[in-house]
Design goal:
single chain; 297 residues; mainly alpha; three-stranded antiparallel β-sheet; 12 helices; globular
Length: 297
């Protein structure tokens, strides 16, 4: 019985909530992990047999496995969404998640790359000759100047770009569209990439492709970004998401409105954007200590 309920739940997430593929995979992983912990037979167990004590036991096990509070709370969020669905469908009468409190999240600031290091990336680092180098430079510039998520960039089509208006149309989380402006320099890099793509007859509606004309995968994009960021920073994380953090932090550090940054990032809530203001405050503290005569006193 449980398997049937889970199947319906995942269909609900995919077709009604229209969650991304990555979100759906995360839900499936978290819930499978929970039911594996319980060692219930999903073919025969009734969902009503599961209570809050089972869930607390799972939290305890996750803590013993040294899972971070952020990870534990994400997994609990999957369970909460499942039980909201089950309550709505009147499959269960009691929601055991109402008695569950997750661990407190530790405040972890988003990591970002300094401005002078980003300048070095585009002025001092040599990109490969030809198609690969032009594409890779465009990818890095696009991520830094727009703050796109990795999945958002790899799902862009040529039709999503508007060179005349200097904008791109992005389909974000929850299938929410947003229009982003692109600078003159980014527009030039985009034009150069599209030109060489056309010259090589790499006919694909997807914007980013490899040398064979196949759509560039998210994993391939990650490898490209890590390759070049490794040349300018010693940060442990060198992912496309670091460039998203860098985009937001640099905007706020240079006086951009937090509401504008929220819209550019495609956040549904201002709370998700406010974490970047902590980086801005830390930057102000450093400037104060460095510049004020009594800053270190």
């Amino acid at each position: 019985m449980l398997n049937t309920h889970l199947t319906h739940f995942f269909e609900y997430l995919q077709h009604e909530k229209k969650v991304s593929v990555h979100t759906l995979i995360a839900y499936k992983h978290d819930l499978n992990q929970f039911f594996s912990f319980l060692e219930f037979d999903k073919e025969s167990v009734e969902i009503s047999e599961i209570n809050y004590q089972h869930i607390r036991g799972w939290i305890t096990q996750l803590s013993k496995d040294k899972q971070t509070p952020q990870t534990v709370n994400r997994k609990l969020s999957s369970l909460k969404t499942l039980y909201r669905f089950l309550m709505k469908q009147e499959i269960v009468k009691v929601n055991p998640m109402l008695k569950i409190t997750g661990p407190k999240n530790s405040k972890r600031l988003p990591v970002f790359i300094d401005e002078h290091q980003m300048d070095s990336l585009f002025t001092n680092i040599e990109f490969e000759e030809g198609f690969v180098g032009i594409r890779d430079k465009f990818i890095l510039d696009m991520l830094y100047q727009t703050g796109l998520r990795r999945s958002e960039l790899t799902h862009l089509t040529e039709a999503n770009t508007n060179l005349l208006a200097s904008t791109i149309k992005v389909l974000g989380k929850g299938n929410k569209e947003r229009i982003l402006p692109i600078s003159f320099s980014l527009k030039c890099n985009l034009e150069a990439y599209l030109k060489v793509k056309q010259e090589l007859n790499l006919q694909n509606m997807m914007l980013l492709v490899n040398e064979k004309g196949n759509a560039l995968s998210e994993n391939a994009l990650y490898i490209i970004v890590k390759k070049y960021l490794s040349q300018i920073t010693t940060l442990q994380k060198k992912s496309p998401h670091v460039l998203r953090h860098t985009f937001a932090t640099h905007l706020l550090n240079n006086g951009a409105s937090i509401l504008a940054v929220k819209d550019l990032l495609g956040h549904s809530s201002l709370n998700a954007t406010q974490i970047y203001t902590h980086n801005t405050i830390e930057n102000l503290k450093k400037s104060y200590k460095k510049a004020h005569p009594r800053g270190d006193s």
